[in-house]
Amino acid sequence: MHERDGYPPGVPCWVDTGQADPAAAAAFYGGLFGWDFADAPSRAATSYLLARLRGADVAAIASRTEEGATWNTYVRVESAAETVAEVSAAGGRVVAAPFDLAGAARVAWLEDREGAAFRVWQPKEHAGARIVNEPGSLNFNVLNTRDAAAAESFYGSVFGWKSLALADGARAWTLAGYGEHVAQSDPGLRARMAQAGVPPGFEDVIATLLPLGADQPHAPAHWSVTFAVADVDATAERATQLGGRVLVAPFDAPFVRMAQIADPQGATLVTSQFVPLAA
């Protein structure tokens, strides 16, 4: 089990998706990931369905009036107001100034220098996702960018992130001390990572950084969300049966097998199955 009771500042801590038809989205994701749902009407002016595994919150589905369904990444902060000022000073844009999501958190909607949208979460009653990195829960948040150097400057200034080189030109975001924080509740973390053959420093990874290639000339910079699954091929097949689409068929990458899917209302997400290196 991978249960959390909070996150340090600077760590992605929560995801939700805005959907024109939240009930239909709940039917899709309930069938795909086995989520149960609890309505939290007091936490937003519109519908906000909390998705749960074993009774623990893992994500949410919000009603959305504008066109286009999306998955949204929230980064845990001490002060939404101070982070908004730091984002502005670093060349980002404030889409929505800090506001209270009822008693759950104080949030703000922002964009980095390239226009990639993200959000910040100053917790009140809700500390963030309670379960991560197991099938049906959040696995990674990924910044897809055309200007890695500018992204490193921006997010380093705002959150103190640094980047770590991975295989195939990908990079990961690290936050100093994060591995130590997780090891307090998961003492076997470093041993498992060493056994899996991950690069040094991977225990401090909090997100990933993926360059947009020449084969994606029209794709804007954006944050995407990856969910862990037990069987990525079976999940892709199930998504199709539930009315979704497979955008990128299952493929192998270092340590994982992945696929990209779109839900019936158009929100895209990545599913990832951990595949340890052969001994």
Listing every helix as H and every strand as E from the N terminus to the C terminus, the arrangement reads: EHEEEEHEEEEHEEHHEEHEEE
Query: Radius of gyration, Cα only, in angstroms?
Result: 18 Å
In terms of structural class, how would the helical and strand content be classed?
alpha+beta
CATH fourth-tier homologous superfamily: 2,3-Dihydroxybiphenyl 1,2-Dioxygenase, domain 1
Oligomer: single chain
For the record, the CATH architecture stands as Roll
Apparent shape: globular
Low-confidence stretches: none
Number of strands: 16
N-end to C-end Cα span: 24 Å
CATH class annotation: Alpha Beta
Largest sheet properties: 8 strands, mixed
User: Strand order of the main beta sheet, please?
Assistant: 2-3-4-1-5-8-7-6
CATH topology: 2,3-Dihydroxybiphenyl 1,2-Dioxygenase, domain 1
Q: What's the number of helices?
A: 6
Number of domains: 1
Quick overview of this protein structure:
This protein is an alpha+beta fold and 279 residues long. The protein has six helices and 16 strands. It has an eight-stranded mixed β-sheet, covered by helices on one side. The protein has an eight-stranded mixed β-sheet with strand order 10-11-12-9-13-16-15-14, covered by helices on one side.
Mind explaining what this structure looks like?
With 279 residues, this protein is an alpha+beta fold. It has a single domain, classed as 2,3-Dihydroxybiphenyl 1,2-Dioxygenase, domain 1 (Roll), CATH 3.10.180. It is 22% helix and 39% strand. The strands form two sheets. It has an eight-stranded mixed sheet, covered by helices on one side. Strand 10 and strand 11 (171-174) form a beta hairpin. The protein is globular and about 45 Å long.
